[in-house]
Amino acid sequence: MAAAKSTAEGDRSHSATAELARTRRRKKAVADEKQYLRAVLSEARSSLSAERARALSMRVQERLLATPAYLAAAKVVLYAPLGREVETTLIAADALRSHRQLYYPVVDRKRHRLLLGAVSSPSELRPGAFGISEPPTIGALEPDELGAALVCVPGIAFTPAAVRLGRGGGYYDRLLAALDSGAVTAGLGYSFQLIDRLPEQAHDRRLDLVVTESAVYAASAAPRAAAQTADQGGLPKWAC
User: Fold this and answer.
1) Dihedral of CA 77/81/84/90: which sign?
2) In a domain? residue 22
């Protein structure tokens, strides 16, 4: 009897250990795939000439400015592009001209997260963490204090269902997870950054929109945990 009980416990322990090993292998495979995609697509983006990146960026921004999400927004969060990321100067100029409140991320290194600082002009941005320009930290908001807004984010890659692959630090995923439910999130990228599928982990966050120079892709189930599903294309109710 005791021997049978010991055998059963041993079997359960072995099964749990095997499952843990499989989970670790899956996580490593996802991490390796993400690392590979970051390397390949970052190189492709870096190979763009400044002139080509500027021209494509203009088209991406023009598409974003025409979306119902932007037209309805009283607050807009942008980013200062790093390298050949899609530029945001046209959106910033239009937002200020139309008296929208404009914000940029500020890195909180102690808590490994992003805050949101308001500006009256992009000229207020100064070099900050990781070589990225930031607004003044005084008066910066926690993400959940922002309320309803259009939040634009960069990315290494996207899918038509608004899955996003970031730089790898998790800063934007934590920002997206903390936003008010009234916030609409948009990833800005070039069409070659759009791929059919991206590996996802539990901490990843999907977007509401992905905007390229060629099209606008909308998903109706974001921002939510990546494990939940999002529709392929089509406009969600808030965008109609």
Assistant:
1) positive
2) no
